[in-house]
Amino acid sequence: MGSDPRARQIAKGDRRVLARALTQAENGSGDIDLLLAAIEHGTAHRVGITGAPGVGKSTLVSALTRAWRAQDRKVGILAVDPSSPFTGGALLGDRVRMVEHTGDEGVFIRSLATRGALGGLAPGVYDAADLLDAGGFDPVVIETVGVGQAELEICRAADTTVLVLAPGAGDEVQGMKAGLLEAADVLVVNQADRDGAQALATALEAALDLRQADRPRPPVLLTTATAAKGIDALCDVLDERARDADGALADRRVERAAARVRAALYRRLDHYVEGRGAELAAAAARIAAGESTAAVEAELLMDDYE
Ligand SMILES: Nc1nc2c(ncn2[C@@H]2O[C@H](COP(=O)(O)OP(=O)(O)OP(=O)(O)O)[C@@H](O)[C@H]2O)c(=O)[nH]1
Ligand SMILES: [Mg+2]
Q1: Whole-model pTM?
Q2: pLDDT by residue (tens digit) across 177-217?
Q3: CATH 3.40.50.300 given to domain 42-245
């Protein structure tokens, strides 16, 4: 595709160039599109980790990272907070808990704010994952806070979505948001050292029995992230996904590409509409005077679009 000297620097492991590119990706600024067209990516396993606040996502990511580093794999971590437009305290907490990996050249940790993307995922998250992928980080972990719709959207940026739950953390299965079980590829009951973990796992299995089987049934795993228990089993499940024997990942990547094209189209259209203030005002006046309709005016404006 394109050429850009930064692409080679990132592929060779230049962290400063990568860091700068990630900032541009987050802000959608500069000539980031040029760089994105020049980098080579598409092979890293993108693992989305989501779940309610405090279930142990960051501790789990830290433990997974330790296991992956022992296999000499380079790990990219994106901490995304969809609820807040600014990088705030919660993410600072994430950083602190990841402190054991700072200074390790084989780990790249980045917090991203998703500045109020309208009706979808901030493009910067997809782009940032591409950049880490191009930098040779594999897996690329995307940790999000919370379990609402916005967080599910973020997991579409992932090849594999891991939903983390913990006993007694307000995660009673019957109260779970619709769509959550359907969206997850792997279910993890963390804090397995605490009372109620096994009961939660059993309740999850029961809920999965009722769910429509249009997708493979997600495995339910128990972990104690603080003691690195169950981590190897989770790694195995993720590796199996990454091997993609059933083609699910390949399908997911095509879906993701389609979503990104759609989002890029909406952005362009949005930009076009923003730039047509005068025409819109004139159209509104005609409609208010009963001389036209919204559909007619939209049609006229689209004729102008190029
Ligand atoms: N007992 C027990 N505590 C755990 C376990 N895993 C994490 N914790 C503790 O749970 C608390 C929250 O852990 P985090 O890893 O920060 O949880 P999180 O889901 O990343 O939290 P947010 O990013 O704020 O949503 C910390 O005090 C951890 O030490 C576990 O397996 N067992
Ligand atoms: Mg966290």
Answers
A1: 0.87
A2: 657 777 889 999 999 999 999 999 999 998 888 877 677 88
A3: yes
41-90: pLDDT as tens digits: 889 999 999 888 889 999 999 999 999 999 999 999 998 865 554 444 44
Sort strands 220-222 and 140-144 into parallel, antiparallel or unpaired: unpaired
> What six digits make up the tokens of 177?
């948001």
**What is the rounded distance in angstroms from the CA atom of residue 70 to the CA atom of residue 74?**
10
Residue nearest to atom 32 of ligand 1 (CA): 191
CA of 113 to the centre of ligand 2 (A): 14
Residue 147 has phi, psi (to 5 degrees) of -135, 25
- Ligand 1 binding pocket (C-beta < 6 A) is 51, 53-59, 90, 93-94, 97, 145, 190-191, 193-194, 224-226
Domain boundaries, the chain: 42-245, 261-304
- C-beta of residue 62 within 8 angstroms of C-beta of residue 125: no
> Ligand 1, closest atom to CA 52?
25
Ligand 1 atom at minimal distance to the Cα of residue 55: 19
